[in-house]
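Hello support,

Our group uses your service weekly, and this is the first time we've seen a run hang past the timeout. The protein is TIGR03936 family radical SAM-associated protein. I'm not sure whether the cause is the sequence or the server load. Input pasted verbatim:
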Amino acid sequence: MITVRISFEKKNEASYISLLDLQRVMQRVLKRSGLPVWHTLGFNPHIYMTFACPLSLGQESECECVDVKTEAEAPDFVQWQTALNAIMPAGIHVTRVAPVEMKADSIAFACYRISYPAAAAAVLEQYNALETAPVEKHSKRGKKIVDLKEHIPQLRYTALGDTVQLELCLPAAQELNLNPSLLTGFLEEKFGLSAASANILRTKFLTADRQLFV
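Update from on-call engineer: The timeout came from a worker crash unrelated to the input. Re-ran successfully.
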């Protein structure tokens, strides 16, 4: 049995599809495609699927992936990609289908591109001047205070017409996973920069040694 990784983009209106709804979408698309994916056993068999680092609602991504299994001996992955893209909902586009090379738990960092209106540059400079930037992080284990400056010492941004863009990589491991909304929320609370004015795009995953996760 082969474990197959389906890599896809999730943009525009699809960014508002929750993880639970995305699971339903993928179940339906895989069933409609007729591809030879493996189903779990038992009274309620369903397609085996695992997602890496679920994306927050409203955020876009170029690097989402879901793993499935197949008993096919020599799958035609180009045909898989074509079949899936033919029936995917708007905003979801399969970019690669291939055997799994790295386990999902090898992900250590998630990288993002955040776009703000050009006027936000002044606020980004104010953040850069801070010595600390404490935020409250909520998780299943409870609440904890995290200093963003330990993970994002400086916001390096580029002015592009009427927007500014910043690139950053944040911890995305099981022991520590930081969402970019912690940063946009902090900038709103501290400086009044609307978090809703930020467009957040996840661009790639990296391993602990900064190797591209595939």
